[in-house]
Each structure stands twice: as structure tokens, then as C-alpha cells.
Amino acid sequence: MTEEIIIAGFGGQGVLSMGQILCYSGVMQGKEVSWMPSYGPEMRGGTANCTAIISDRQISSPVLNTFDTAIVLNQPSLDKFEAAVKPGGLLIYEENGITRKPERTDINVFSITAYDESVRMNNTKVFNMIVIGGFLKVRPIIELENVIKGLEKVLPERYHHLIPLNKKAIHQGMEIIKERHSLNQA
């Protein structure tokens, strides 16, 4: 099993943290991982993306042009990375801020309302964990207990009291992700 993932959105959405958490979680599960961030000079509001590779085998290169999964959190990211999903792959998009829906019919497409759900949970900082929950519902490549261990590695210790809230956010993401187009339906 090898999963090559691109996560993209605006700075401040937790894009880079999502990739780190997935990779640390993979390490906790005994997988080979690679994480490569890419972001502009802006602190918040600029574009950011990262690639995360989780594999049973040694990873030869972190540089990718196509992906098994794209998780896109804004319209510019959808515009840039929709075409980079391998045929038969997965695209997950955050509904908030998307003006043009994905158009490809040779991939599986899911949407999630993570921002709205984070507002309902009274903490928009769990937005990215809701997205991770949705991803893991569709592609259960990492066990939840290892995601929690990954969170413990990524979060500074002063924020460890928020781990139960993040765990709840992951479960919420698993509940609210919606299938928009599946190759199984075609």
C-alpha cells in the first residue's frame, strides 16, 4: 500500500499540520512516510500545500506530479490540483469557498463542510481534524489510535488538553463527509 496525497488550501487552515499529523500517524503504525511542505511568504491567507506519502515500502522520492488523493480546501487549490489526481483516485473538497465543483468523472469525489462543523463545535481550530476524519472514513489507511499518537507528536505539550476535542472532530468528519461522484456508481 502506498498513498500519495496532496493537501492544499490557504495558509492558516492547518494544511501543513494535516500532512504532518498523517505522516507521524503513519510512523506510529510502522509505515514509511514523506512530508514535503510548500507555501508562500505570507503568514496567513497565502496559498499552502504539502505532499504526504504513506507507504509499506521505502519511498524513493517525495517529489510527485500526480496523486492518489487530493484534499483541497479552496477554489485555487481545486483549480490547480484536480487534474493531478490519478484516474481512479480520490478528491475531497471543502464546500465552503468552492465556486466551481470538480468536473472529472474518472475519480471519486467527496465533499465535506468542515468549516461549518468547526463553527458548530465552537472551535474553528479543529477544522483540519474534521477534514482528516473525512479522509480516513473514505481511505482508512491509518488507525485512529495512531492518529491520536501522531497528534501528540505534532501538538506542543501545552495543547495536549485539546486532544479529546480533536478526537471528537475526527469522528465528526467521518460522519459528515458526502460522496459526490463514485466510480462504483458509474
Quickly list its features.
single chain, 186 residues, alpha/beta, Pyruvate-ferredoxin Oxidoreductase, domain 3, seven-stranded mixed beta sheet, 6 helices, 7 strands, globular
Explained architecture:
The protein has a seven-stranded mixed sheet, with helices on both faces. The protein has one domain: Pyruvate-ferredoxin Oxidoreductase, domain 3 (3-Layer(aba) Sandwich). A hairpin with a 7-residue loop joins strand 2 (32-39) and strand 3 (47-55). The protein is globular, with a radius of gyration of 15 Å. Helix content is 35%, strand content 27%. With 186 residues, the protein is α/β, with parallel strands linked by helices. Helix 3 (114-120) packs across helix 4 (127-138) and helix 4 (127-138) crosses helix 6 (163-176). The model has no long low-confidence stretch (mean pLDDT 91).
